Amino acid sequence: MDSGLRRDIEWDCSRVVIQFYNNLDARQYDDLVDLFEADGVWKRQGKELEGQAAIMTAMQARGEFLVIRHVVTNIQIIVEDENNASSAEYVTIYRFDSEEKLDGPAPLDGPGVIFLYQDKLVRTDSGWKIKDKRGRPIMVKKKKS
User: Fold this and answer.
1) What is the pLDDT, as a whole number, of residue 51?
2) Distance between CA atoms of 77 and 55, rounded to whole angstroms?
3) Contacts (Cβ under 8 Å, ≥6 apart) of 103
4) End-to-end Cα spacing for the chain
5) CA–CA separation, 135 vs 145, rounded Å?
6) pLDDT tens sequence for the chain (145 residues)
7) How many CB atoms lie within 10 A of CB 123?
8) Residue 14: how many CB atoms within 10 A of its CB?
9) pLDDT computed for residue 37 by the predictor
């Protein structure tokens, strides 16, 4: 594979990864679900969400006043061939669960957890899509004693 095609795939797949977290934080769930293949799998909070409908159901169940941001770093795209790639990225999560709509910034108590996510991506007729997404915590917030 020539280096130009490899760079194009790396760029396109990086954009899918970044857009996933942007959509998640902005509660743009239709756009988030569209980043997955129709039968894509997302292992989230101990459950395997299989297919776009299951992913949408989980997104719609999120707290109405949840304020959450995913800071994504160290994205690495591994190009397997012209139609398959995988990614690894670190995600630092800042979260505040509110019982009502906030009028200003959410209180910040530091990051809650750092995850390593790994994705499998495939080229489709409508662009690159996530086939499988799973993560595991690398660092968790120390409990106060």
Assistant:
1) 98
2) 23
3) none
4) 55
5) 28
6) 899 999 999 999 999 999 999 999 999 999 999 999 999 999 999 999 999 999 999 999 998 888 899 999 999 999 999 999 999 999 999 988 777 788 888 878 888 899 999 999 999 999 999 999 999 999 998 887 7
7) 16
8) 19
9) 98
Cα torsion angle, 32, 34, 35, 41, sign: positive
For residue 75, being part of any structural domain is answered with yes
Question: Residue 19 sits in a domain of what CATH number?
Answer: 3.10.450.50
3-state secondary structure the chain: CCHHHHHHHHHHHHHHHHHHHHHHHCCCHHHHHHCEEEEEEEEECCEEEECHHHHHHHHHCCCCCEEEEEEEEEEEEEEEECCEEEEEEEEEEEEEECCCCCCCCCCCCCCCEEEEEEEEEEEECCEEEEEEEEEEEEEECCCCC
Domain count, the chain: 1
pTM above 0.85, yes or no: yes
Question: Domain range holding 93?
Answer: 3-140
**Tokens in use for 100?**
């009502």
